[in-house]
């Protein structure tokens, strides 16, 4: 409305009769314009004001120019409200809402206004190095870019879901867990197609970004992990029951024999509904996989938790026949404390230069962790109560020390002695029992930065030859730095 008043005053000023020696009588057109333009501006002001607030105007028609400003301010014709934009008699246009919202909530996200569609972008970068005791074999150190991965996940129409995880190496890009699926009946049941993780192994199913140790246990190398196929999941970590069934290639990549692996997992949390019980987060589970394999083992190895290969299969070694995995698991966490354990048995038909055998491998581990600074941890992220900051401290923004955690794990792996008899492994590179100890401290600087320093010690039941050196034990200091978002 201020624009209308301003235009009216300018019109009146420009059309005022000039005085002085050079003044001429106003023409008929100027006299008409001098009367009509202010009247038009005033009419426009009344129209706009009628849509916003009452306006007191003189009862007499405006027969003279508006020489002074109006006593009552008129509404601004440039106002953005629908009522101020639409002339009388036309329905106001509906307010246009933002088509999406975006921000950060454990990942960068873009979400539709109704929340039914969402895209989240995260990532993780791990840098690891190890220092082994001097005087032994395989003492190479140096830094290793263990993992550099982007994570895309989301949903469409609140039912269709997806996850894509490209992992970058020095010379190629590989896919980790990558699938699309659908939520069934709007509940916790999900059908996943593509490259999901087979439902087996608690440790394998946990995200590496929230793991309490610098490396995974000895047993983890026997878990199927990501594989091409179809997986049906039900329940969640907040429900009494959680289960999963899968049909996959059984190789982790392309199929080699046309046979498929069947997998199943079942977890129960008996006291999940007892909100005041310390046993509320105690869970028990079992899992199994079965399939027929046709895979060459030549050159494949088994490694310690410090990533030192201690067993290598000989040329001509093959997995040729049935393979059955059976796993048991339990976990408990309450506030800053976490306890986790698994046991595994793998029975498989193998073929070597010395003949065919039915080999059995067994193992177990028990781990415990304690957040010294009192934060809750569980299977998810640790969020420091006072994050560490590199900025200068002030009374308004005091610096923190982050969160600190102690973690320890012990595990054992027992191998079948017939592996040597069948010519699958060399006699001087085989120990039928491997025992591993891991103890370390984790520093969670912020919600996104973590440093882990662990001592990993390995004992072999009998001395084995590694890179030409006889070894009965090994100790390593492992440092892992992680950035995730």
What does this structure look like?
The chain is mostly beta strands and 485 residues long. It folds into two domains: 84 residues, no CATH class; 370 residues, Porin. 10% of the residues lie in helices and 44% in strands. Strands 3-4-5-8-9-10-11-12-13-16-17-18-19-20-21-22 form a 16-stranded antiparallel beta barrel. A two-stranded antiparallel sheet has the order 6-7. Strand 8 and strand 9 form a beta hairpin. Helix 1 runs antiparallel to helix 2. 27% of the residues are buried. About 13% of the residues have low confidence.
| Helix-strand pattern | HHHEEEEEEEEEHEEEEEEEEEEHEEE
Oligomeric state of the chains present here: single chain
Number of helices: 5
CATH topology annotation of the largest domain: Porin
For the secondary structure, the number of strands is 22
Tally of discrete structural domains: 2
Low-pLDDT residue intervals, each spanning 5 or more residues:
10-24, 27-33, 51-93
Overall 3D shape = globular
| CATH class term of the largest domain | Mainly Beta
Strand composition percent: 35-45%
- Residue-averaged pLDDT: 82
Range of helix content: 10-25%
Strand count, sense and barrel status of the largest sheet are:
16 strands, antiparallel, barrel
Provide the CATH superfamily of the largest domain: Porin
Distance between the termini: 50 Å
Rg of Cα set: 37 Å
Instruction: Based on the coordinates given, report the CATH architecture of the largest domain.
Output: Beta Barrel
Structure classification? mainly beta
As laid out across the biggest beta sheet, the strand order is 3-4-5-8-9-10-11-12-13-16-17-18-19-20-21-22
